Amino acid sequence: MAAVRYRRFLKLCEEWPVDETRRGRDLGSFLRQRVAQVFREGENTQIQDPEVCDQMYESLNRINSSYYKEKYPRLQDTSFTEITAEEYRMVLATDNLKQMDESNKGMWKRLLEKFNTKPPQDGAKE
């Protein structure tokens, strides 16, 4: 039975999209890492709680297949802010978040970072 569960999770990982704009924060990447952790031994992995494993698979599969999006259709494609999902995607991209973080630093902090010329510490004291 573990082999069947393993194959189902592998198929889900193949189908789940990976968003390259969210490096290190993407659900698809996290899912792949987690499946690799849980199924370390591949098809020979012993599942401690098969019911929980099956429930998790079913939940992830419903999210991936847009079950809830179709069951509860939205009246509009925007939120209360009138921003579309594509605009949110652009704002939440890792590169944009880094730029916003950099621009939110105060002038003093930027000057300290720019002029802080401490030599790299090798762990050896002179």
Automatic annotation (TrEMBL):
Organism: Pyxicephalus adspersus
Lineage, uppermost ranks: Eukaryota, Metazoa, Chordata, Craniata, Vertebrata
Protein name: Mitochondrial nucleoid factor 1
GO cellular component terms listed in the entry, alphabetical order: mitochondrial nucleoid
Localization in the cell: Mitochondrion matrix, Mitochondrion nucleoid
One Pfam short name: UQCC2_CBP6
Keywords: Mitochondrion, Mitochondrion nucleoid, Transit peptide
A biological process term (GO) from this entry: mitochondrial respiratory chain complex III assembly
Family matches, as InterPro entries: UQCC2
Keyword presence, Oxidoreductase: no
